[in-house]
């Protein structure tokens, strides 16, 4: 583009999604979740040598962090770095699931740190009763 100088602009790309997953969280559930992801079958296109699963302490308690690489269409086939954190919502059966992806593998470590910082910054205040109510079985159903 004219006026931007002789050096082409560098575009750094990534994607971040925060989702909520209902999961019965009994004592030891976070550790079991980490074990589940560590032993999970290899996804199509996943580089199993890149998979790292661990527990980390957050201000809200233990969370699971998963890092891996997987082939994806972006719009052409290429490896994508993926970091996910699964953080229990204290006092409920809900997990915050933060997923960060990038096709720029050089950004993998930086985005993993950013994912940790974002999970650490989540504050679960003022919504516990609403989440409990939304996860209650409806009349006539059993759980």
Largest sheet: 5 strands, antiparallel
Q: Going across the major beta sheet, what is the strand order? A: 1-5-4-3-2
CATH homologous superfamily grouping? Mog1/PsbP, alpha/beta/alpha sandwich
Order of helices and strands: EHEEEEHH
The overall average pLDDT, rounded, is 81
Per DSSP, the total helix count is 3
Structural class: alpha+beta
Helix content range: 10-25%
Question: What Rg do the Cα atoms give?
Answer: 19 Å
- Total strands: the figure is 5
Number of domains: 1
CATH class label:
Alpha Beta
- How much beta, percentage-wise? 25-35%
Distance between the termini: 60 Å
Shape category: globular
**Low-pLDDT residue spans:** 136-143
Which fold name corresponds to the CATH topology? Answer: Protein Transport Mog1p, Chain A
Which helices and strands occur, and which strands form pairs?
Layout: E1 15-22, H1 29-39, E2 52-58, E3 61-73, E4 77-88, E5 94-102, H2 108-121, H3 128-134
Antiparallel strand pairs: 1-5, 2-3, 3-4, 4-5
Descriptive report:
The radius of gyration is 19 Å and the shape is globular. It has a single domain, classed as Protein Transport Mog1p, Chain A (3-Layer(aba) Sandwich), CATH 3.40.1000.10. It is an alpha+beta fold. It starts with 14 loop residues before the first strand and ends in a 9-residue tail after the last helix. The protein has a five-stranded antiparallel sheet, with helices on both faces. It contains three helices and five strands; from the N terminus they run E-H-E-E-E-E-H-H. Helices cover 22% and strands 34% of the residues. The C terminus is likely disordered.
């Amino acid at each position: 583009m004219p006026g931007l100088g002789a050096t082409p602009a560098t575009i750094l790309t990534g994607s971040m999604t925060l989702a909520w997953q209902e999961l019965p969280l009994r004592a030891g559930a976070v550790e079991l979740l980490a074990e589940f992801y560590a032993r999970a079958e290899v996804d199509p296109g996943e580089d199993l040598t890149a998979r790292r699963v661990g527990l980390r302490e957050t201000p809200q308690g233990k969370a699971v962090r998963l890092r891996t690489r997987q082939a994806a269409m972006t719009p052409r086939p290429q490896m994508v770095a993926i970091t996910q954190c699964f953080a229990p919502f204290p006092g409920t059966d809900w997990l915050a699931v933060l997923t960060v992806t990038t096709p720029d593998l050089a950004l993998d470590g930086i985005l993993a740190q950013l994912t940790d910082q974002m999970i650490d910054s989540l504050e679960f205040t003022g919504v516990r009763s609403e989440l409990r109510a939304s996860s209650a079985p409806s009349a006539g159903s059993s759980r």
